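Supplementary Text 2. Reproducibility record for the structural model of the 355-residue chain.

All settings were left at their defaults, and a single model was retained for analysis rather than an ensemble. We include the record here because the model underlies the residue-level annotations in Supplementary Table 4.
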Amino acid sequence: MDPTQASAITVTPLNFFLDFRNATPVPLNETVCENWREIHHLVFHMANICFAIGLVIPTTFNLHMIALRAMLTIGCVLFIIWATLFRCALDIMVWNVVFLLVNFLHFIYLVYKKRPIKIDKELSSLYKRMFEPLHVPPEQFQRLTGQFCNIQTLKTGQAYAAEDKTSVDDRLSILLKGKMKVSYRGHFLHNIYPCAFIDSPEFRSTQMNRGEKFQVSITADDNCKFLCWTRERLTFFLESEPFLFEIFKHLIGKDITNKLYSLNDPTLNDKASQKMDQQPTLCSQLSVMQMRNSMASSSDSEDGLQHFLRGTSTASSLRPPSPHLRASQKMKPIEESVEDDVFEPAAATRVQAHP
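Retained model, structure tokens:
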């Protein structure tokens, strides 16, 4: 090859781009696809219809992901049938077999997640009354009640907690069956009915002050059955479940509010306590001394207890007394001479001050 030919080869550029300006127009009667092939078999079109239906399912439909995977699986099956029996295309069949396996496995997983969760009969009423209205999924409730808690029983007269003896740091319980009574120094305060926390005030109190003892006695008034959590393991579990943590804060606060109402009306029955479930949480941060003992936290006098048993509300004991409240029977009446001095004319007072 002489140098002139070599230079001509090196100078000539490689044109990979189409030059539309110099392109010659093609007549309308001469197209790229001169002879269109015949329409594919009906199975091919049914497969594409399944894909289209799966893609247009709205996300507002509760089972839209399951329906999508089901339609994609059916479409892949139809494509395999079409590629094998009518097209004889190995590559189309292999790709659709892969897609079929992926979609079918995903479909099985979604159906498994939607399976009905069987809740224990002893806990079904608890779930329906306390957790289901707050949209807690059954699987979360099952994890909450199936790992670190147990169901315990008490016979009539047995004590759940003894005043000034039992520690409040160990557990948290919900009454499932029976009735318990709460007393202070032998005086009845209120009852605890099924689907209510037994020691919610103490549980809230120990979040602020550890090492406390029960300030009240809780005994079984009937044969009782209750669900009991270990405090430490429950706290650790709720830290990893923010949704359930907020649910517990709400339920415990509402239960404390119900107990405050029942302090004012010790004869409150179970039906009335169910109606109070709609009341908002008011006193979730109060300590056990403020809630179950409306007297002074360190007072041992019987006068305060008698004042409480006469029907003084817990809320009124936690705030300064109003001047419009009725005076106690033990309060000494104001002497007439002192009262007269109070309503003496102002002029006379000035005369006495400046003789």
